Amino acid sequence: MVTEALSHVLSGSPAERVLDRTLRAHRSLSREQRQALAEVVFNVGLWRRRLGFLLGNPEAPVPALLYAFLHRLAGLSPEDAVRLSGIGEPQPLAAGEPLSLALRWSLPDWLAEHFSREFGPAAEDFCAHLNVPGPITLRVNPLRTTRAALAERLRAEGVETRPGALSPLALHVVGPKPNLYGLDSLREGLFEVQDEGSQLLGLLVEARPGETVLDLCAGAGGKTLQLAAAMENRGRLLAYDPDAGRLDRLLQRCSRAGVSTVQVLRAPPEGVLADRVLVDAPCSELGSLRRGPDLRFRLDPASLSELPRVQHDILARAGRLVRPGGRVVYATCTVNRAENEEVVLGFLRESPGFRLVPPGAGWLDPSCVREGFLFCAPHLHGTDGFFAAVLERVEG
Ligand SMILES: C[S@@+](CC[C@H](N)C(=O)[O-])C[C@H]1O[C@@H](n2cnc3c(N)ncnc32)[C@H](O)[C@@H]1O
């Protein structure tokens, strides 16, 4: 069962889905056995390159990878690791650290090279943090409750939390992963699950009650809900996304959260002059790699090169939809200057009617500002990786 699940993960199936399928097919497993299976599937999926290095074979078969994981990373004796992996006899494992960043942190070569270019010497620390699962972070829904009241309510439901340091809306779950989807507080719309860095992007829009706000890449509405709450459910909040299914989910979430101001646009907006526009752009998502053990192995480096043109076009559209004196927030969840700074600087070069303004002046923690842009990352802030620029259309 373990070998079969791992074979699927190593040949490209998402680990979460494989685990789910395997657990459903083996319902008699005890709680401990289920936990052990999850650990093995996630860790062998994540550490496959490093395990291949230990075995001296980048194409090592699944039982050998399992043995290397159990003995060297999980600390089992060679005898126990042999028995559980079914390999027959102990295998020699390399001593010492791999020389390359890619092997040390079990990344594809191209990705490790990319992070080296992005971060220089800090790439080691960044990559190490990609191999530690991020915290589960909740965003309180201020239309329904306060952060302190939500923390009390969650405690009564058996979930301990602590407040986030960067976003006044954030609560981090403390201790073992709870089944959030079984909680009444979730069904009542008291919170959403949202990384603290992602919350900063929504806050950066600084949407106010009564304004016209356009969420131009609304998806399933994570930030739309946040904007609606900031607007205290007053004003005009327009949400567009080309993916109709995501917009349907957005509407369901709105009703749960008590949001009544959202107008969903099924076609690209025209003729709007909004006070604020959020471009939460489609991107390579390199900032979210710690969210899944095997996301990194499913990325196609060629697809990265197509994104800046798409992002440029969406940002240019946003520029046409904001009023003089209004603001566009351009945001991504990636660590890639070509999709971040370069898209914004290219837009500014061809749009003299816009200027870059300091992000979150007066409230954003200065550690989240890099070269005039919002930038946060797992090794610096404990968040996923995010980038944002605040662009003001000059009055005229
Ligand atoms: C990062 S996701 C948005 C996440 C969403 N804002 C949230 O907080 O849940 C990017 C979204 O951009 C949408 N998208 C792709 N191409 C687009 C385009 N040309 N114009 C607008 N949105 C686009 C995708 O469908 C996707 O939902």
Give a verbal description of the structure.
This protein is an alpha/beta fold. It has three domains: 2-89, no CATH class; 137-193, 2-Layer Sandwich (Alpha-Beta Plaits); 196-393, Rossmann fold, CATH 3.40.50.150. The protein contains 18 helices and 13 strands. The strands form two sheets. Strands 5, 6, 7, 8, 9, 10, 11, 12 and 13 form a nine-stranded mixed sheet that branches. Helix 1 packs across helix 3 (31-55) and helix 16 packs across helix 17. The longest helix has 25 residues, at 31-55. The protein is globular, with a radius of gyration of 23 Å. The mean pLDDT is 95. It binds S-adenosylmethionine. The site of S-adenosylmethionine has 15 residues, from helix 12. InterPro entries: MeTrfase_RsmB-F_NOP2_cat, MeTrfase_RsmB-F_NOP2_dom, RCMT, RsmB-like_ferredoxin, SAM-dependent_MTases_sf. Belongs to the class I-like SAM-binding methyltransferase superfamily. RsmB/NOP family. Pfam families: Methyltr_RsmB-F (PF01189), RsmF-B_ferredox (PF22458). It comes from Archangium lansingense.
